Amino acid sequence: MEEQKIEKAGTKKKVGRSVLLGAAFLMATSSIGPGFLTQTTVFTQQLAASFGFVILISLLLDVFAQINVWRIIAVSGLRGQEIANKVLPGLGVVLAILIVMGGIAFNIGNVAGAGLGLNAMLGMDPITGAIISAAFAIFIFVVKEAGKAMDKVAQIAGFVMILLMVYVAFITSPPVGQAVINTFAPSEISIFAIVTLVGGTVGGYITFAGGHRLLDAGVKGVESLPEVTKSSVTGIAVTGVMRIALFLAVLGVVSQGLAIDPANPPASVFKLAAGELGFRMFGVIMWAAAITSVVGAAYTSVSFIRSFHPKIEKYHNWIIILFILVSTITFALVGRPVNILLLVGALNALILPLALGTLLVAAYKKNIVGDYKHPLWLTITGGLVVVVMGVLGIMTLIEQIPLLFK
């Protein structure tokens, strides 16, 4: 009898660890999409070793944002839109609309990225590859234990991407010493690069991906905060390892004086580093990055409308599947609608300050968090992220609107 109790306790601990790791990797792999690969490559070309400073600052902002969001979701036991509606009636609906709009628009890009990944990996037609990839993503939500399947896919894809990226970084022999020096004493600083990285890593739906996954798995309450905090930091750490490995790989290629193809910068880096094998490896990384982003975007976007009607809650897996289908059909028939992506990209920059600012207000409302006392240092650092990203997000929106009418 005692052995059975111990076995059950051990199983419970193992499942808990798996869920926490799954949430961390869901957040991390959601942020490591096709855009992540291109941004990192292009900014490393522009800033060289000084891009290390951009990575450092963006990771600090990411950590402050995610710890705040995950903790407040866990303590309240509510999803982001439910918290927002309690802070100000109707605000949750506005937030949900922005998240879903952004999710669909960026998922078109994610589906396209998955098609390009299979094209590089196997020589497959990109549209055919996108349709096959969408079918794979849909299958995840058809199986009985969709949450566990999603966790497992995110973890496997994350580990594969890290191993391949670290390998390429190693064989390009980057000037690591110079990168370390310029990380703390940069010769050039790009505010635009910092905003882009933060927005791409914890902006839009990604802000809530891990927190909502933990909530759906039943991880909530003040007693769960140590695990929730650890999981959020793990997610950012995984993203950081990927970003640093890709940065070093590109830096190694650039420092050798090799020319990167502007038509497809990340693919060019892998081909220059390891020839045809490197190009195939890029295909694997691109597909893994894109397919996990497809899953993360669909899951998190739909989680923002689940509480609006009992029918949506009941059939949420089928709505996730519909979400993926709409993104795939749009890409297959229309391609990537550039103007919509520009507008939604600019709006996406405003989601993080709006969402994080709302949750910081909620952290001090007893009808939402009860007797929980939010740490002052988290409020201050979270407030800093809100102000910085809010101002820069508005600047980005002003810059992008004229482009829509060209």
From TrEMBL:
GO cellular component: plasma membrane
GO molecular function, one term: cadmium ion transmembrane transporter activity
Originating organism: Psychrobacillus soli
InterPro entries found in the cross-reference section: NRAMP_fam
Compartments in which it is found: Membrane
GO terms classed as biological process: iron ion transmembrane transport
Pfam annotation, one family: Nramp
Entry keyword set: Membrane, Transmembrane, Transmembrane helix
Protein name in UniProt: Divalent metal cation transporter
Topology versus the membrane: Multi-pass membrane protein
Ranges annotated as spanning the membrane: 20-37, 43-67, 87-108, 120-141, 153-171, 191-215, 236-259, 279-305, 317-334, 340-364, 376-398
